[in-house]
């Protein structure tokens, strides 16, 4: 009865929650025991050897070296167990499962904006399905924020200069807190919201309802609006590199270094194109810093991603085949037409 | 008056004779003094005022947090309250409190010296402190600042419209006060020890202040650089931390914590030194494992420089650097554990007095232990992700900084009060205050561990209703704590006029400071002592005392 009014643990609603709680319980037991022992020992010794008329003189003695060594070595071993266990949980919190579905988040003073690949946008509320890993790719439009889900035991700072990702797999349906954990100004404590964990069928129904088109298709419109397609053509004749099949591949730069074309590389190449120029191309692209907001950037990112990596397994085989057929020309278009053939195909034809 | 010979040092208690207080009169004799004892008194008054100011901000915050809604203050005011509470308490209270008050007064006497190596620089560092505090107060009066004491970019450089430059300038100046104090301590400890006072005969308070001074001298310039960059960025928009023109806001966090993590050890190492002094004096024993305790101070000072990025585990550092910094953070816990176990072991077969300073230190050991072990929770990477930037962190550092440093400071000021003023305080009220502080402290901060694990973020003006019960407990504790802190102001002030005369050595303690009169003469000793004994040589002391008088 009382315990439900006075909880010691927050609700545990993700696959990681119980692992973090177990680590916490382990540390609480070890550290609690040590602290209580120190307290008891201090009180016991202070009473037993309190100053009395017949106890005016302390009995001085040198410490046995063994005792000193014991309380250096034993705590160190216990600390290492904590370190390894903590690192193990941290690895699992850091590694996003391969089958995660994507959500995009933007933090700004003082709200959370979420975008789903299918095009739904929401503010301070996030709908996710239960039992499926969700990866959130996020950036800030202004100061540093921190997206925090106590029920999922995870958080990450949201930065204004690059993408961070965070993931969770909800294990029960319901509403759970979203907090901003990094102080961000006046309404920091109002930068809160709810994550709505839904059954997969409900989630699919929610996704189907009303949309301005998928993020990738909105990104494609932006791609044309900013005239990206005049240089980034679908064949190797453009002034810019071909973007089809680019995502998550390794790119050679003019300074002979290699970079992985991940989210942050694509973001940087849009905002400050001069910082990493692909080998064989002139640094002619203008900067889009300050012209494209974070939400539109995420749409452009979704579009560039849609030009590559196929999602469903059956499509993956197809894509591999098309890669093989076009093996002679790695820059050839068509390699990544699989996910949304209608949008990918037409837009980039000059 | 009474006079006895211990280790060939003539101990004199010439009451009514001239001492540092009545040697000269008039405001100028204080404001232009080069006497380290008078400078310590100047610091005592100014740091106490800053403590009351910082404490009043805390009280206002705790009252606001009685209800989940932000109803007493506006969000902007609340944000200024926690910012100013942090800035005042860290830069103007915790960092200087023990070195500048107790260290200034006691260190030269413990070394058997007449003064510091650079008495004028010592006075200069007080003036720098006052100048910095004046700039800080000016900022507070003209509207305050709302960035948090950490001044994270780009909020502080591009978004906050409060007095960021003013307050960082105050921190910049206060840093120089700190650097000069550290420099003075190091040179004095190296060059001004009495004949025969070898390194291993030094009291552990001196070892702790030495380690502290090394950190002050090496880390504080980095803070100065960081704050200059911050001011420059805000003033000119040069873009060091501005992502829109290629800067990196997280770089600021690295630079800030490169100072501010070692600064935590600037705050706690002197407290550990006080603990060693008090434990030895009130158990009449040499500290168990003296050399381990001495070298653990240096170990903490060294390792403290290698753990700064544990403040950035969720800020976007790589998995591998997180691993290294987590490992080193566990490593730095070892020397702290050594100290706790050695203090506790010293009680074994001792003659434990329950005088006020000892009560504070017994509380200190317990609270510092809790503060220390909860640091392990934060170093455990997978757990830190959840509790980072929550009330768990708030509780952890208050256990170390308030449960640790403030408790040790109160122990130290009670321990050396008879030496500083020549008067005894009322023991009953002092013990009552110690009890109130201990109970009030735990009631204030223990619930915050639970709040933090439940997920309440720090720096929240309004919070979710389910967190209210624990917040009310915390505020109730804070009101008890406030009474506990107010009491010493009254009975210590009272003792100045009505307190019993202390005599040379009211505690029956060993140490050069207990061989000179209370208050000490202007030049500390009538003749330079020659030291032929180890620190905490209680058997010899008790033999000598037993022969001459009954303590």
Task: Describe what is shown at a glance.
The complex is a heterodimer of chains A (350) and B (551). Chain A is an alpha+beta fold and 350 residues long.
What do these coordinates show?
The complex is a heterodimer of chains A (350) and B (551). Chain A is 37% helix and 18% strand. By secondary structure, chain A is of the alpha+beta class. Chain A folds into 2 domains: 162 residues, Cupredoxins -  blue copper proteins (Immunoglobulin-like); 113 residues, Cytochrome Bc1 Complex, Chain D, domain 2 (Orthogonal Bundle), CATH 1.10.760.10. Chain B has one domain: Cytochrome c oxidase-like, subunit I domain (Cytochrome C Oxidase, Chain A), CATH 1.20.210.10. Chain B has 551 residues and is mostly helical. Chains A and B meet through helix 2, helix 3, strand 7 and strand 9 of A and helix 3, helix 5, helix 8, helix 10 and helix 11 of B.
Helix amount of chain A: 25-40%
Number of helices of chain A: 9
Which CATH class of the largest domain in chain A applies here?
A: Mainly Beta
The average pLDDT of chain A is 84
Low-confidence stretches of chain A: 311-350
Question: Could you give the distance between the termini of chain A?
Answer: 70 Å
Low-confidence stretches of chain B: 1-5
Terminal Cα separation of chain B, in Å? 16 Å
CATH superfamily of the largest domain in chain A: Cupredoxins -  blue copper proteins
H and E order of chain A: HHHEEEEEEEEEEHHEEHHHH
Tally of individual helices of chain B: 16
Our estimate of the beta-strand percent of chain B is under 5%
Helix content of chain B: 55-70%
Largest sheet, spatial ordering of strands of chain A: 3-2-1-5-8
Radius of gyration of chain B, in Å, reads 23 Å
Radius of gyration of chain A: 28 Å
Q: Which band does the percent of strand residues of chain A land in?
A: 15-25%
Say what oligomer this is. heterodimer
